[in-house]
Amino acid sequence: MNTFPSKPLRSIRASDSVLTWSGAIEVEHAAGWSRGWRLPHSLLRLFPGERLQGQARAQAGVRITFGTDTTVLRGRCLSADDVGPVDLVVQGTLVNAPVAADGSFHFAELPAGEKILEIWLPHSGDFRLVELAVDESARTWAAPATRRPRLITYGSSITHCGAAASPTRTWPALVARTLGMDLTCLGFGGECHLDPMIARLIRDRPAEVIITCLGINVYGAGTFSKRSFLPAVLGFVSTIRDGHPRVPILVVSPIFSPSREEQAGPTGMSLTEMRADIAEAVRLLREHGDEDVHLVDGLDVFGPAQEHLLPDGLHPSTDGYAHMATSITPLVRAHLFPNH
Fold this sequence. Notes:
It is a single chain. This protein has helices spanning about 50-55, 155-160, 170-180, 195-205, 215-220, 230-245, 270-285, 300, 320-335, and strands at about 10-15, 20, 25-30, 35, 65-70, 75, 85-90, 95, 105, 115-120, 130-135, 140, 150-155, 180-185, 210-215, 250, 295. By secondary structure, it is α+β, with helices and mostly antiparallel strands. It folds into two domains: about 10-140, Galactose-binding domain-like (Jelly Rolls, Sandwich); about 150-335, SGNH hydrolase (Rossmann fold). Strands 2, 5, 7, 8, 10 and 12 form a six-stranded antiparallel sheet that branches. The chain is globular and about 65 Å long.
């Protein structure tokens, strides 16, 4: 790997079978690089919208794992114009590394001996991995499969968390890491519009807990009206339920956004009114026999007391996402371990 001449290293192609891509719906292997997708790349035309497809390229929650005894890990991606940092988790320790302008990143002085490396890919930008590199004499092997409870999160930029400082500091990542869960993050900045095909995708993907964060993109874009929003929420959640008969579904209404609380948007509804419709959807589903769908009021997750953690009045800061994780983690834990 001639990008890093300071120490003899052995290159691992991004498509090498020793690497396990977790949290991706599908992995695209092209000539010379690989990229995780958070929508099925082979069926991408069934998920129309250039912006949605662009957000699905950003690898929020996607991790690469493998076993090795290397003391150095280096990597290179095809382009680094708009990508965030890479996080590495090794033996429970988290290390952060920026991606340089030439697409390179590196982690030095890793613990000696055998270990499993978990590389959290940048949660923003178009990251296409070319290769990793380890010590020239290092051994590598595919990480053994581990059965962890699976968490799916769906939502807007507030679930995508592009403003978080690094990929492990998004609220879905913080919740998953705290509870030892296998995360699939379907947060799409600006693109949480209750797409039926995404409901079908979640329906068909295994999960032990599902979190849907609904409303804010509908408010901003006017996707639905007063007439159609409640039916859309009912249909979206019911489609997910079809594939998960007893899985807890947490339906989170919009978090606090001061200028939108009482101001009607293009939907003709304020956030306060949209929260009421989301609560009504959950009430109706429970009334008709779905005891495993649960309302989470967004103001309980992130309310007026946290306004100082909203730099732009809409998106939480890194500390704001940490607060969201602190609010949501006990709720997930209660449903994941109901007898504890």
